[in-house]
Amino acid sequence: MTVPEPSSAPVATGAHPRENDPLVLAAAAVTVVLWASAFIVVRGAGPHYSPGALALLRMAVGTAVLGLIAVRRGIRWPARRDLPLVAVWGIAWFCLYNLALNAAELMIDAGTAAMVVNLAPLMVVAIAGLALREGFPRGLLIGAPISFLGVVLIGLPAGGEGAKPLGLLLALAAAVLYASCTLIQKRLLRTVDSTTLTFTGALAGTIALLPWIPATVHDAAAAPLGATLAVVYAGIFPTAIAFTTWAYVLQRTSAGRTAATTYAVPAVAILLSWLLLGEVPTPIMLVGGVLCLAGVFVTRAVRR
Q1: 147 contacts: CB under 8 Å, gap ≥ 6
Q2: Residue 256 to residue 139: CA distance in whole angstroms
Q3: Is residue 158 situated within a structural domain?
């Protein structure tokens, strides 16, 4: 899918007349499907790559592709006053979030990690409603909790038994980083075009991950080819392409609705695991997936 050239003009918060435009909805769907696929392909690479090595290799590939996209569209560098915030956002989103989530999933099961990290959209809804003056649309207040309940049901079969406190803290840190970075990105998109912002942020995150070069070289030499190709896939599609479409949607939709849309990711991940890996979901997981999708539909369909 080709996303139209993003406008560099400021986009006002609060009113978003284009949030249900077909191109915006299509970009949101691409983001959801690609992010869901990352859980499947990276799962196979996890045992062969340390959290830092996995994050660096994925971001190195993703940043290279984002650089090609940015050059093709024309890089419009952020104003000097915006550069420090762009760097902080990029390091937090593309470096610290990846490290926290990768490390958390080594200590706690995927279901528990999903439940904790998916507190982030609820944080975005609350903070954006106040700090960004987006208000609290009825659809968002109804749909986001419905989707979160779906995430909880999906995670129940995992049990969460024996979860390490440090793993829970790291997952919570990932949720806070997710929410904070979404809100900061919404602020930056007022003055920086989405393509340039995504590339420069990814570049800052990749630079911050350079201390893991020795670990990446070591793990890549020992890992099977399939695991390395999975990380490369994650860099190209769930990172470069999905973060480009994510920024496109965020620029044209309220932060709360954009974040709540990602509640469809667990449902799509279940479906992909079923179709591609033959992992049949339990009935309660199917109910959870339906609730995730229903909640996202409500956030998009119900007006103020």
Answers
A1: 121, 260, 263, 264, 291, 292, 294, 295, 296, 299
A2: 11
A3: yes
| Burial readout 248-282 (b: 16 or more C-beta within 10 A, e: otherwise) | bbbbbbbbbbbbbbbbbbbbbbbbbbeeeeeeebe
Predicted pLDDT at 17:
53
Domains in the chain, number: 1
Residue 16 lies in a domain: no
- Residue owning tokens 């990932």: 174
**40 burial via Cβ count (<10 Å: 0-12, 13-18, 19+):** middle
Q: Which domain holds residue 59?
A: 22-301
- What pTM was estimated for this model as a whole? 0.82
Q: What is the pLDDT of residue 49?
A: 92
Dist. CA 259–CA 265, nearest whole Å:
11
